[in-house]
Specification:
By secondary structure, the chain is an alpha+beta fold. The chain contains 11 helices and 12 strands. A hairpin with a 5-residue loop joins strand 3 and strand 4.
């Protein structure tokens, strides 16, 4: 039986060489072992460290004497997470199973964490079976892989977002083209319709005047057959048609407000005087004290008020309360128009100001979108709050910086 040479002056690796092995071979092995580019250890079947190369010291900061003779699972190099993986794979190798290269975490002496790939090979060392274990440092590679993965995921999200933006831009372009076509048609149709509408208005006026000027028998005949009521109906429908034409034209044409000093309180009263308010609706106008005059376009703002008040009245077919408030806060003036009507569903709230959208059986769906354009032309905005069955509040916010002292 061959004996092992073990002298105090020998290097750790030499102490396990067979005595009869030529000294030159031992030196060659020692040189090759230490020249290996990766940390390498030799462990026996129980996991005791028999040899370590120079790279182990260089990479981990642990000296040979701190490692040799110890079970590698008990060293400070092995983390708790790695210990489980190492024990599992060591058991497999002891049962003769093939273990492919695998990754574990190790700690350096100064606490730095490294990710290494372990590749173990069965050898005979000092006449006994052992494992030659190579620890390849793949920390940088794993960091780069993680960064690449994050970049790839981020790039995928960017592509998705960009695709979504392109689809949305295409929708907006198609919508803009459609609205441009509507605007062009609205201009031509509005011009062509205005003349016959004016003729109808004039005809109705003359017809009503003729009835009033006719003999008593003629007036009785007209009253008996409801002719005057029919003429009123025609007149109302003409006004409605004229509003549709005006909304179409207002939506299509560029808006450039002609600003003049205006009392909003007076403008509201003037607007209400032109609207037929049902007897079942009570109207209140509340003006905050010291509410200032503003620089606005009274024609455009009257159109806004007319549309909003008309919508509020239509939302209360059974009657209710219409409250118009004027207030100011910080740099803004507020006009709120509140009704106690049927309210608007949450589903429809986000679509209210879209052109062509309407919840009414009659209407082109341009009224609120026109209001929005006119308010925004004054550097303001319009908001809505509503609850089904309780009513709605439309609020117009205008900048006070146009206030005239």
């Amino acid at each position: 039986m061959q004996s092992l040479k073990h002298k105090s002056m020998q290097s750790p690796i030499e102490s396990f060489y067979i005595e009869e092995e030529p000294k030159e071979s031992r030196k060659e092995f020692q040189t090759l072992f230490n020249l290996m580019p990766d940390p390498v250890v030799i462990v026996d079947a129980k996991g005791k460290l028999l040899a370590v190369n120079d790279k182990v010291e260089e990479k981990t900061g642990f000296k040979r004497e701190e490692l040799l003779g110890k079970n590698f699972l008990e060293t400070k190099i092995v983390t708790a997470k790695s210990k489980t993986i190492l024990i599992k794979n060591l058991a497999k190798r002891m049962m003769g199973m093939h273990v492919a290269p695998y990754e574990v975490e190790v700690l350096t002496k100064d606490g730095k964490k490294l990710i290494v790939e372990i590749n173990a090979t069965k050898i005979e060392y000092g006449g006994k079976p052992a494992d030659l274990v190579i620890f390849r440092d793949i920390t940088e590679r794993k960091i780069m892989e993680e960064k690449l993965k994050e970049y790839s995921e981020h790039l995928e999200e960017l592509v998705k977002e960009r695709t979504r933006q392109l689809i949305e831009a295409q929708k907006q372009l198609l919508k803009a083209e459609r609205l441009a076509a509507i605007g062009e048609v609205a201009g031509m149709v509005g011009h062509d319709l205005r003349n016959p509408l004016q003729v109808i208005v004039s005809t109705v006026y003359l017809a009503k005047k003729s009835l009033n000027d006719s003999p008593t028998s003629g007036r009785n005949f007209a009253e008996k057959h409801g002719i005057e009521e029919l003429l009123v109906t025609v007149e109302e429908q003409v006004k409605y048609m004229n509003k549709i034409v005006s909304d179409l034209q207002d939506y299509a044409r560029p808006l450039k407000p002609e600003l003049v000093e205006t009392s909003l309180h007076q403008l509201i009263n003037d607007t209400l005087s032109t609207i037929t308010v049902p007897e079942t609706v009570k109207v209140s106008v509340v003006v905050e004290e010291d509410f200032p005059k503003l620089m606005i376009d009274p024609t455009l703002m009257k159109r806004v008020l007319t549309n909003l008040i008309t919508n509020a009245l239509q939302a209360m077919p059974e009657g209710g309360q219409l409250t118009i408030r004027l207030s100011k806060k910080e740099e803004n003036a507020f006009i709120s128009i509140q009704d106690t009507g049927v309210g608007i569903s949450e589903e429809n709230l986000g679509k209210l100001f879209h052109p062509l959208f309407t919840t009414k059986s009659k209407g082109a769906g341009f009224g609120l979108s026109v209001c929005k354009r006119m308010v925004e032309a004054h550097d303001g905005n319009i908001m809505v709050e509503s609850k089904v069955g309780k009513g709605s509040t439309f609020t117009v916010k205008l900048p006070l910086r146009r206030e005239v002292s």
